[in-house]
Write a structure and sequence with these properties.
Length: 527
């Protein structure tokens, strides 16, 4: 009973020792486990926002003698592209070598399955930067993040003062969705390979990985095919407004597909049928039920044309065209369109889709179509692309199809940004779609009947009835495609408009350095 008071001084000493020991342990623990003090420059500006980015308090300055080295020869093209970006602004030689050591190291490590097909780990220490991926795609995406760690002037085409200093730290990153796309309608107005190269460069920098080309429509057929040369000699000769149109030769197209693939962008060709086919009907009269030759369509109406389904010429056309397109397509997907077939009966629609489906699958490719594909029993192994009616992708997903989301209100990049947009381009039938609206939605929650597990990803779509020049095209795509890239890549947690707008503001100067046009939305505090 006296223990507590038997020797008060001894008890005090004992307690003090315990407290002192605890304090000591806390101090040691803190100095070992806690991150070093404040970062030199936190990585809060990256776009798309990475899954995790932690800066520490050191820094690394790229030395003039820096080299880029790779652990595996398959990474050399990636290293060369990175060097090609960094050389003009730094003025450094940045030789690419296979030594596996240097200031910038790219490493392929197949054992890092935790990084996934497209993920990467980027580590910056006081001696250099290392990008690690389990695949070349992951390493490529890591190098895009490397570019963003440096000041925007690193993107300049002329020598800039530097110093090229970055914080130390680690980015661990990978995408939320596998499909991060952009569709360009080259049928209504034609855009040549050089313009598409510019678009691909920017897409790839923001980790978009599918370029869906809407190659055929009423107003134009843009892909040369040996099976039916008239499709381009006749069907490629004009466009909306009556201009000269154009088309990709087979060589142009092969080069374009390869240019995209080097940047980990897969070209997804779309041959739209059975509607949206006036250019084919004008080229090949045997496809028209009336046997007539419709004049070229240089207007902007939709839903006026259909292949004549049920005649042998149409069956041969669908087979030959899609088989040849598949042979020109290293990617896994062929898009058969299938939208707005207003002149085709439901039975003919089903029959036409069956022909297309057979040709695509017999060529070893996977079918993707607009959401109307649900009316022709879309199911497992197929992809439907939602644009307007939630019931259609929901039905297809219930039957096992995957869904790519391009809701017109958010992802149709031909919608004008705002009523007072100082541009006489685009349209607004689905509503105005400003920089924030196009970004501020959750693909995992967009269709109440489609769980996130059925959502393959997101795709922006730029239709070109009212977009005629490269300047207009870029201004409508950018910067909204960056928001869609972020929806496709970044985790849903942490989605904040305030933060997004601040990050986006940093990219105006990069677009300026690239000479790529973007819409200078007033809601963004461009720097
Ligand atoms: C579409 O907008 N017709 C897919």
């Amino acid at each position: 009973m006296y223990r507590g008071t038997a020797c008060p001084a001894a008890t005090l000493v004992r307690r003090w020792r315990v407290v002192a020991r605890l304090l000591l342990l806390l101090l040691i623990g803190a100095s070992c486990a806690a991150p070093p003090r404040g970062p030199a420059e936190p990585w809060t500006h990256l776009l798309p926002r990475p899954a995790s980015a932690i800066t520490t308090d050191g820094g690394f300055t790229l030395p003039p003698g820096a080299a880029i080295s790779v652990s595996d020869p398959t990474l050399e093209p990636i290293a060369s592209m990175l060097a090609g970006t960094l050389r003009p602004s730094t003025g450094y030689a940045l030789p690419v070598s296979a030594t596996g050591s240097g200031a910038l190291v790219l490493t392929l490590d197949a054992t890092r399955t935790d990084l996934g097909d497209e993920g990467y780990e980027l580590t910056v220490t006081s001696t250099g930067l290392t990008v690690r991926g389990a695949t070349p795609a992951g390493v490529f995406y890591g190098t895009q993040t490397v570019r963003q760690l440096f000041p925007a002037s690193i993107e300049s085409a002329t020598v800039q003062p530097g110093p090229w200093r970055v914080s130390t730290g680690t980015v661990r990153d990978g995408p939320r969705f596998a499909w991060r796309g952009l569709m360009v309608d080259v049928a209504r107005h034609f855009f040549g390979p050089a313009e598409l190269h510019r678009v691909i460069d920017v897409m790839a920098h923001f980790k978009l990985n599918r370029l869906h080309l809407h190659l055929t429509d009423d107003q134009g057929w843009r892909l040369q095919l040996d099976a039916r040369p008239a499709l381009t000699s006749v069907g490629g000769a004009t466009q909306v407004g009556g201009g000269p149109g154009g088309f990709y030769s087979k060589a142009d197209y092969a080069e374009l597909v390869q240019y995209a693939a080097q940047r980990f962008v897969t070209v997804v060709p779309e041959i739209d049928l059975p509607g949206h086919t006036n250019a084919a009907l004008a080229s090949l009269p045997e496809l028209d039920c009336d046997g007539g030759v419709p004049p070229p369509d240089t207007g902007t109406m939709v839903g006026l044309s259909s292949l004549c389904v049920g005649v042998p010429a149409t069956a041969a056309f669908v087979h030959d065209v899609l088989t040849e397109v598949a042979a020109m397509t290293p990617g896994a997907w062929i898009h058969l369109g299938g939208d707005e077939a207003k002149q085709t009966s439901p039975a003919d629609y089903q029959a036409a889709i069956a022909l297309a489906r057979d040709a695509i699958t017999a060529s070893g490719k996977q079918v993707i179509g607009w959401e109307e594909l649900a009316r022709a029993d879309a199911g497992p192994g197929e992809i439907v692309q939602h644009w307007l009616d939630p019931a259609l992708p929901t039905a297809a997903a219930t039957h096992g199809a995957k869904v790519v989301l391009s809701p017109a209100r958010r992802a149709y990049l031909d919608m004008q940004y705002a009523p007072d947009q100082p541009l006489d381009v685009g349209t607004f039938w689905a509503g105005y779609d400003d920089v924030i609206t196009s970004w501020d939605w959750d693909p995992g929650q967009w269709l109440p009947g489609v769980p996130e597990t059925q959502v393959l990803g997101v795709e922006g779509a730029v239709w070109t009835e009212y977009i005629a020049t490269p300047d207009q095209l870029e201004t409508m795509i950018f910067p909204r495609a960056l928001g869609l890239a972020e929806l496709g890549w970044s985790p849903s947690s942490g989605h904040s408009t305030r933060d997004y707008v601040q990050r986006l503001a940093d990219f105006g100067s990069r677009f300026d350095a690239w000479g790529v046009r973007y819409f200078p939305a007033a809601t963004v505090p461009w720097r």
